[in-house]
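Predict the 3D structure for this chain.
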Amino acid sequence: MRFEQRPIVGRITLLSASVKAYKPRHRLEPDPVSGSFVYPSGPRVRLFRALISRCLCHRRRLPLLPMKHQLDFEKPIVELQAKLEDLRKHPETHSLGISFEEEMKLIQTKIEERRRQIYSSLSAWQRVQVARHPKRPFTLDYVATAFTDFCELHGDRLYAEDRAIVGGFACIGGHKVLVVGTQKGRDTKENILRNFGSAHPEGYRKALRLMKLADKFGLPIIALIDTAGAYPGIGAEERHIAEAIAVNLREMMLLQVPIIAVVIGEGGSGGALGIGVADRVLILENAYYSVISPEGCAAILWKDRSAAAKAAQALKITAKDLLELKLVDAIVPEPLGGAHTDPAKTAANLKEHLLAHLEKLLKLTPTERLEQRYAKYRAFGHFQEKIAAPAPTAQPAPSKAASRSSAAQAS
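Done. Predicted structure below.
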Protein backbone atom coordinates (compact mmCIF):
# COMPACT_ATOMS: atom_id res chain seq x y z
CA MET A 1 0.00 0.00 0.00
CA ARG A 2 1.37 3.41 -0.96
CA PHE A 3 -0.05 6.76 0.07
CA GLU A 4 0.63 9.94 -1.87
CA GLN A 5 -0.03 13.66 -1.45
CA ARG A 6 -1.58 14.83 -4.69
CA PRO A 7 -2.13 18.58 -5.32
CA ILE A 8 -5.57 19.55 -6.62
CA VAL A 9 -6.67 22.84 -8.23
CA GLY A 10 -7.27 25.50 -5.61
CA ARG A 11 -4.35 24.45 -3.43
CA ILE A 12 -6.34 21.62 -1.89
CA THR A 13 -4.55 18.45 -0.90
CA LEU A 14 -6.46 15.21 -0.71
CA LEU A 15 -5.23 11.95 0.69
CA SER A 16 -5.38 9.20 -1.91
CA ALA A 17 -4.40 5.60 -1.56
CA SER A 18 -3.25 3.23 -4.28
CA VAL A 19 -3.29 -0.42 -3.43
CA LYS A 20 -0.67 -2.56 -5.15
CA ALA A 21 -0.61 -6.35 -5.07
CA TYR A 22 -2.73 -6.67 -1.94
CA LYS A 23 -3.29 -10.37 -1.34
CA PRO A 24 -5.76 -11.27 1.43
CA ARG A 25 -4.81 -14.12 3.66
CA HIS A 26 -8.30 -15.60 3.52
CA ARG A 27 -10.78 -16.29 0.77
CA LEU A 28 -13.86 -14.14 0.32
CA GLU A 29 -16.87 -15.38 2.22
CA PRO A 30 -20.51 -14.45 1.55
CA ASP A 31 -22.19 -12.20 4.09
CA PRO A 32 -25.02 -14.09 5.78
CA VAL A 33 -27.34 -11.03 5.67
CA SER A 34 -26.65 -9.36 2.34
CA GLY A 35 -25.27 -12.33 0.50
CA SER A 36 -22.36 -10.26 -0.90
CA PHE A 37 -18.76 -11.36 -0.62
CA VAL A 38 -16.74 -9.52 2.04
CA TYR A 39 -13.37 -9.91 3.68
CA PRO A 40 -13.38 -11.71 6.99
CA SER A 41 -12.81 -9.56 10.03
CA GLY A 42 -9.37 -9.13 11.51
CA PRO A 43 -6.98 -6.37 12.63
CA ARG A 44 -5.24 -6.17 9.29
CA VAL A 45 -8.46 -6.11 7.31
CA ARG A 46 -10.12 -3.58 9.60
CA LEU A 47 -7.15 -1.23 9.26
CA PHE A 48 -7.21 -1.58 5.51
CA ARG A 49 -10.95 -0.89 5.26
CA ALA A 50 -10.70 2.08 7.62
CA LEU A 51 -8.00 3.69 5.53
CA ILE A 52 -9.90 3.19 2.29
CA SER A 53 -13.12 4.59 3.75
CA ARG A 54 -11.21 7.59 5.05
CA CYS A 55 -9.82 8.29 1.60
CA LEU A 56 -13.27 8.03 0.03
CA CYS A 57 -15.22 10.07 2.55
CA HIS A 58 -12.70 12.91 2.56
CA ARG A 59 -12.75 13.50 -1.20
CA ARG A 60 -14.27 16.95 -0.86
CA ARG A 61 -12.94 20.48 -0.99
CA LEU A 62 -11.26 21.48 2.22
CA PRO A 63 -11.39 25.07 3.52
CA LEU A 64 -8.63 27.27 2.14
CA LEU A 65 -5.99 28.01 4.75
CA PRO A 66 -3.96 31.22 4.59
CA MET A 67 -0.42 30.55 3.40
CA LYS A 68 2.36 32.84 4.57
CA HIS A 69 5.47 33.30 2.50
CA GLN A 70 8.27 34.99 4.37
CA LEU A 71 11.91 35.40 3.49
CA ASP A 72 14.63 34.75 6.04
CA PHE A 73 15.67 38.39 6.29
CA GLU A 74 12.04 39.41 6.96
CA LYS A 75 11.94 37.60 10.30
CA PRO A 76 12.10 40.81 12.43
CA ILE A 77 9.12 42.21 10.50
CA VAL A 78 7.14 38.99 10.92
CA GLU A 79 7.76 38.98 14.67
CA LEU A 80 6.41 42.53 15.00
CA GLN A 81 3.40 41.67 12.83
CA ALA A 82 2.68 38.64 15.03
CA LYS A 83 2.88 40.85 18.12
CA LEU A 84 0.46 43.33 16.51
CA GLU A 85 -1.97 40.56 15.59
CA ASP A 86 -1.82 39.13 19.09
CA LEU A 87 -2.55 42.57 20.53
CA ARG A 88 -5.61 42.93 18.30
CA LYS A 89 -6.96 39.57 19.46
CA HIS A 90 -6.20 40.20 23.15
CA PRO A 91 -6.28 43.96 23.78
CA GLU A 92 -6.31 43.46 27.54
CA THR A 93 -2.69 42.22 27.49
CA HIS A 94 -1.06 45.55 26.63
CA SER A 95 1.04 46.87 29.48
CA LEU A 96 2.95 49.92 28.30
CA GLY A 97 0.92 52.35 30.36
CA ILE A 98 -0.63 53.92 27.23
CA SER A 99 -3.93 53.48 25.41
CA PHE A 100 -4.63 50.51 23.17
CA GLU A 101 -4.77 52.66 20.01
CA GLU A 102 -1.47 54.38 20.79
CA GLU A 103 0.26 51.04 21.37
CA MET A 104 -1.02 49.72 18.04
CA LYS A 105 0.23 52.83 16.24
CA LEU A 106 3.59 52.47 17.96
CA ILE A 107 3.98 48.88 16.75
CA GLN A 108 2.87 49.81 13.23
CA THR A 109 5.46 52.58 13.19
CA LYS A 110 8.13 50.11 14.27
CA ILE A 111 7.09 47.73 11.48
CA GLU A 112 7.41 50.44 8.84
CA GLU A 113 10.76 51.60 10.18
CA ARG A 114 12.13 48.05 10.29
CA ARG A 115 10.86 47.33 6.78
CA ARG A 116 12.49 50.55 5.52
CA GLN A 117 15.78 49.66 7.18
CA ILE A 118 15.80 46.15 5.73
CA TYR A 119 14.74 46.99 2.18
CA SER A 120 16.99 50.02 1.87
CA SER A 121 20.08 47.85 2.29
CA LEU A 122 19.26 44.55 0.58
CA SER A 123 22.16 42.49 -0.69
CA ALA A 124 22.23 41.10 -4.23
CA TRP A 125 21.18 37.64 -3.03
CA GLN A 126 18.31 39.06 -1.00
CA ARG A 127 17.02 40.89 -4.08
CA VAL A 128 17.16 37.59 -5.98
CA GLN A 129 14.99 36.09 -3.25
CA VAL A 130 12.50 38.94 -3.57
CA ALA A 131 12.44 38.49 -7.36
CA ARG A 132 11.52 34.83 -6.83
CA HIS A 133 8.81 35.50 -4.25
CA PRO A 134 5.81 33.23 -4.99
CA LYS A 135 3.35 36.07 -4.46
CA ARG A 136 5.12 38.44 -6.87
CA PRO A 137 2.95 39.65 -9.80
CA PHE A 138 3.48 37.77 -13.06
CA THR A 139 2.99 38.81 -16.68
CA LEU A 140 -0.75 38.18 -16.82
CA ASP A 141 -1.22 40.11 -13.56
CA TYR A 142 0.33 43.20 -15.15
CA VAL A 143 -1.63 42.63 -18.34
CA ALA A 144 -4.85 42.66 -16.33
CA THR A 145 -4.00 45.85 -14.41
CA ALA A 146 -1.76 48.00 -16.63
CA PHE A 147 -3.37 47.11 -19.99
CA THR A 148 -6.89 46.89 -21.36
CA ASP A 149 -8.66 44.92 -24.09
CA PHE A 150 -6.14 42.08 -24.05
CA CYS A 151 -6.73 39.45 -26.73
CA GLU A 152 -4.42 36.46 -26.39
CA LEU A 153 -3.06 34.66 -29.45
CA HIS A 154 -1.79 31.08 -29.46
CA GLY A 155 0.51 28.73 -31.35
CA ASP A 156 3.70 29.00 -33.38
CA ARG A 157 2.08 27.54 -36.56
CA LEU A 158 4.93 25.01 -36.70
CA TYR A 159 4.78 22.58 -33.79
CA ALA A 160 2.63 23.34 -30.75
CA GLU A 161 1.34 25.89 -28.26
CA ASP A 162 3.72 26.79 -25.43
CA ARG A 163 1.93 28.09 -22.34
CA ALA A 164 5.19 29.38 -20.85
CA ILE A 165 4.99 32.38 -23.18
CA VAL A 166 1.81 34.41 -23.51
CA GLY A 167 1.12 37.15 -26.02
CA GLY A 168 -1.59 39.12 -27.70
CA PHE A 169 -2.92 42.53 -28.65
CA ALA A 170 -3.80 45.07 -25.96
CA CYS A 171 -4.16 48.80 -25.29
CA ILE A 172 -2.22 51.03 -22.91
CA GLY A 173 -2.85 54.74 -22.50
CA GLY A 174 -4.65 55.02 -25.85
CA HIS A 175 -1.93 53.11 -27.74
CA LYS A 176 -2.57 49.77 -29.41
CA VAL A 177 0.34 47.45 -28.68
CA LEU A 178 1.43 43.84 -28.72
CA VAL A 179 2.26 42.36 -25.31
CA VAL A 180 4.39 39.24 -25.04
CA GLY A 181 5.97 37.73 -21.95
CA THR A 182 6.94 34.67 -19.97
CA GLN A 183 4.39 33.38 -17.49
CA LYS A 184 4.90 31.29 -14.33
CA GLY A 185 2.30 29.43 -12.30
CA ARG A 186 0.84 30.00 -8.85
CA ASP A 187 0.38 26.37 -7.82
CA THR A 188 1.75 23.01 -8.86
CA LYS A 189 -0.82 22.34 -11.57
CA GLU A 190 -0.38 25.75 -13.20
CA ASN A 191 3.40 25.53 -12.91
CA ILE A 192 3.31 22.25 -14.81
CA LEU A 193 1.09 23.88 -17.43
CA ARG A 194 3.44 26.87 -17.71
CA ASN A 195 6.57 24.72 -17.37
CA PHE A 196 7.65 26.94 -14.45
CA GLY A 197 8.10 29.86 -16.88
CA SER A 198 10.80 28.12 -18.94
CA ALA A 199 9.85 28.26 -22.60
CA HIS A 200 10.37 25.60 -25.26
CA PRO A 201 11.49 26.44 -28.83
CA GLU A 202 7.86 26.71 -29.92
CA GLY A 203 7.35 29.42 -27.31
CA TYR A 204 10.05 31.63 -28.82
CA ARG A 205 8.78 30.91 -32.32
CA LYS A 206 5.30 31.91 -31.22
CA ALA A 207 6.69 35.15 -29.77
CA LEU A 208 8.50 35.91 -33.03
CA ARG A 209 5.38 35.18 -35.06
CA LEU A 210 3.40 37.67 -32.98
CA MET A 211 6.17 40.28 -33.18
CA LYS A 212 6.27 40.04 -36.96
CA LEU A 213 2.50 40.41 -37.00
CA ALA A 214 2.80 43.57 -34.88
CA ASP A 215 5.54 44.88 -37.19
CA LYS A 216 3.26 44.30 -40.17
CA PHE A 217 0.49 46.42 -38.64
CA GLY A 218 2.82 49.03 -37.12
CA LEU A 219 2.07 48.21 -33.47
CA PRO A 220 4.66 48.81 -30.72
CA ILE A 221 5.90 45.72 -28.88
CA ILE A 222 6.14 45.40 -25.09
CA ALA A 223 7.93 42.34 -23.68
CA LEU A 224 7.61 41.35 -20.01
CA ILE A 225 10.43 39.06 -18.86
CA ASP A 226 10.20 36.73 -15.87
CA THR A 227 11.99 33.43 -16.40
CA ALA A 228 14.83 31.49 -14.85
CA GLY A 229 15.92 30.50 -18.37
CA ALA A 230 14.87 28.56 -21.43
CA TYR A 231 13.92 24.94 -20.91
CA PRO A 232 17.06 22.75 -21.17
CA GLY A 233 15.32 19.41 -21.74
CA ILE A 234 16.06 16.82 -24.40
CA GLY A 235 12.92 17.68 -26.37
CA ALA A 236 13.87 21.35 -26.46
CA GLU A 237 17.33 20.45 -27.75
CA GLU A 238 15.85 18.17 -30.38
CA ARG A 239 13.65 21.03 -31.61
CA HIS A 240 16.64 23.43 -31.62
CA ILE A 241 16.13 25.78 -28.69
CA ALA A 242 19.43 27.58 -29.36
CA GLU A 243 18.47 28.21 -32.99
CA ALA A 244 15.06 29.56 -31.97
CA ILE A 245 16.62 32.06 -29.55
CA ALA A 246 19.31 33.06 -32.06
CA VAL A 247 16.70 33.73 -34.76
CA ASN A 248 14.73 35.90 -32.31
CA LEU A 249 17.85 37.96 -31.56
CA ARG A 250 18.48 38.52 -35.25
CA GLU A 251 14.90 39.29 -36.23
CA MET A 252 14.14 41.59 -33.28
CA MET A 253 17.09 43.78 -34.26
CA LEU A 254 15.38 44.37 -37.62
CA LEU A 255 11.80 45.11 -36.50
CA GLN A 256 10.89 48.69 -37.39
CA VAL A 257 8.33 49.27 -34.62
CA PRO A 258 9.24 50.49 -31.11
CA ILE A 259 10.19 47.69 -28.70
CA ILE A 260 10.27 48.01 -24.90
CA ALA A 261 11.39 45.12 -22.70
CA VAL A 262 10.81 45.02 -18.94
CA VAL A 263 12.39 42.55 -16.51
CA ILE A 264 9.63 42.12 -13.93
CA GLY A 265 11.18 39.28 -11.93
CA GLU A 266 13.86 36.83 -12.99
CA GLY A 267 15.85 37.59 -16.12
CA GLY A 268 17.71 34.37 -16.74
CA SER A 269 20.24 34.05 -19.53
CA GLY A 270 19.20 33.40 -23.14
CA GLY A 271 15.68 32.56 -22.05
CA ALA A 272 15.19 36.20 -21.13
CA LEU A 273 17.22 37.60 -24.02
CA GLY A 274 15.09 35.62 -26.50
CA ILE A 275 12.37 38.27 -26.14
CA GLY A 276 14.57 41.01 -24.67
CA VAL A 277 16.18 42.76 -27.66
CA ALA A 278 14.58 46.21 -27.48
CA ASP A 279 14.99 49.95 -27.94
CA ARG A 280 14.49 50.45 -24.21
CA VAL A 281 15.17 47.88 -21.49
CA LEU A 282 13.57 48.59 -18.11
CA ILE A 283 13.88 46.60 -14.90
CA LEU A 284 11.87 46.56 -11.69
CA GLU A 285 13.71 47.61 -8.56
CA ASN A 286 13.96 44.12 -7.06
CA ALA A 287 14.33 42.15 -10.29
CA TYR A 288 17.59 40.75 -11.64
CA TYR A 289 19.10 40.14 -15.10
CA SER A 290 21.93 37.64 -15.43
CA VAL A 291 23.72 35.30 -17.82
CA ILE A 292 23.45 32.50 -15.23
CA SER A 293 21.65 31.90 -11.97
CA PRO A 294 23.65 32.55 -8.77
CA GLU A 295 23.34 28.87 -7.85
CA GLY A 296 24.72 27.79 -11.22
CA CYS A 297 27.61 30.25 -10.98
CA ALA A 298 28.43 29.06 -7.45
CA ALA A 299 28.41 25.42 -8.57
CA ILE A 300 30.88 26.20 -11.37
CA LEU A 301 33.28 28.58 -9.62
CA TRP A 302 33.14 27.41 -6.01
CA LYS A 303 31.91 23.85 -6.56
CA ASP A 304 29.25 24.57 -3.96
CA ARG A 305 25.72 25.86 -4.59
CA SER A 306 25.61 27.27 -1.05
CA ALA A 307 27.94 30.05 -2.25
CA ALA A 308 25.04 31.56 -4.22
CA ALA A 309 25.11 34.78 -2.17
CA LYS A 310 28.76 35.33 -3.01
CA ALA A 311 28.06 34.58 -6.67
CA ALA A 312 25.12 37.00 -6.80
CA GLN A 313 27.32 39.79 -5.49
CA ALA A 314 30.08 39.04 -8.01
CA LEU A 315 27.73 38.79 -10.99
CA LYS A 316 26.46 42.41 -10.67
CA ILE A 317 22.90 41.38 -11.49
CA THR A 318 20.81 43.86 -9.50
CA ALA A 319 18.97 46.77 -11.07
CA LYS A 320 21.36 49.35 -9.65
CA ASP A 321 24.43 47.52 -10.97
CA LEU A 322 22.88 47.04 -14.40
CA LEU A 323 21.99 50.72 -14.65
CA GLU A 324 25.55 51.72 -13.77
CA LEU A 325 26.86 49.35 -16.45
CA LYS A 326 24.34 50.85 -18.94
CA LEU A 327 22.79 47.47 -19.64
CA VAL A 328 19.33 48.79 -18.73
CA ASP A 329 17.85 52.20 -19.41
CA ALA A 330 15.70 52.82 -16.32
CA ILE A 331 14.60 51.30 -13.01
CA VAL A 332 10.89 51.02 -12.21
CA PRO A 333 10.43 51.62 -8.47
CA GLU A 334 8.55 49.10 -6.32
CA PRO A 335 6.56 49.68 -3.13
CA LEU A 336 8.43 49.24 0.13
CA GLY A 337 8.62 45.51 0.74
CA GLY A 338 8.50 44.43 -2.90
CA ALA A 339 5.99 44.32 -5.73
CA HIS A 340 3.95 41.60 -4.01
CA THR A 341 3.03 43.93 -1.13
CA ASP A 342 1.13 46.31 -3.45
CA PRO A 343 0.65 44.91 -6.99
CA ALA A 344 -1.70 47.72 -8.01
CA LYS A 345 0.87 50.42 -7.22
CA THR A 346 3.60 48.46 -8.99
CA ALA A 347 1.41 48.14 -12.08
CA ALA A 348 0.72 51.89 -12.00
CA ASN A 349 4.47 52.64 -11.82
CA LEU A 350 5.12 50.23 -14.70
CA LYS A 351 2.40 51.78 -16.83
CA GLU A 352 3.76 55.28 -16.20
CA HIS A 353 7.29 54.30 -17.28
CA LEU A 354 6.06 52.37 -20.32
CA LEU A 355 4.02 55.32 -21.58
CA ALA A 356 6.88 57.78 -21.02
CA HIS A 357 9.35 55.70 -23.04
CA LEU A 358 6.78 54.77 -25.67
CA GLU A 359 5.97 58.43 -26.38
CA LYS A 360 9.66 59.17 -26.94
CA LEU A 361 10.16 56.21 -29.27
CA LEU A 362 7.09 57.01 -31.35
CA LYS A 363 8.58 60.42 -32.18
CA LEU A 364 11.51 58.74 -33.95
CA THR A 365 11.45 57.48 -37.51
CA PRO A 366 11.95 53.74 -38.13
CA THR A 367 15.42 54.42 -39.51
CA GLU A 368 16.43 56.40 -36.42
CA ARG A 369 15.10 53.67 -34.13
CA LEU A 370 17.07 50.97 -35.97
CA GLU A 371 20.27 53.03 -35.86
CA GLN A 372 19.89 53.75 -32.14
CA ARG A 373 19.05 50.12 -31.39
CA TYR A 374 22.14 48.93 -33.23
CA ALA A 375 24.37 51.49 -31.50
CA LYS A 376 22.89 50.56 -28.11
CA TYR A 377 23.93 46.92 -28.32
CA ARG A 378 27.25 47.67 -29.99
CA ALA A 379 28.17 49.81 -26.97
CA PHE A 380 27.66 46.97 -24.47
CA GLY A 381 30.72 45.88 -22.54
CA HIS A 382 33.27 47.77 -20.47
CA PHE A 383 36.93 46.97 -20.19
CA GLN A 384 40.20 48.61 -19.22
CA GLU A 385 43.33 48.14 -21.24
CA LYS A 386 46.64 48.91 -19.61
CA ILE A 387 49.04 50.36 -22.15
CA ALA A 388 52.63 49.33 -21.52
CA ALA A 389 55.04 52.23 -21.03
CA PRO A 390 57.67 52.53 -23.82
CA ALA A 391 61.02 51.05 -22.88
CA PRO A 392 63.80 53.64 -22.41
CA THR A 393 66.14 53.82 -25.40
CA ALA A 394 69.79 53.06 -24.67
CA GLN A 395 72.15 55.99 -25.28
CA PRO A 396 74.90 55.17 -27.82
CA ALA A 397 78.44 55.11 -26.46
CA PRO A 398 80.52 58.22 -27.51
CA SER A 399 83.12 57.63 -30.19
CA LYS A 400 86.88 58.14 -29.62
CA ALA A 401 87.01 61.23 -31.87
CA ALA A 402 84.17 62.84 -29.93
CA SER A 403 85.95 62.10 -26.66
CA ARG A 404 89.22 63.72 -27.91
CA SER A 405 87.42 66.84 -29.10
CA SER A 406 85.59 67.27 -25.80
CA ALA A 407 88.89 66.84 -23.90
CA ALA A 408 90.58 69.42 -26.11
CA GLN A 409 87.79 71.93 -25.50
CA ALA A 410 88.05 71.38 -21.76
CA SER A 411 91.81 72.14 -21.83
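Residues 2-57 form one domain.
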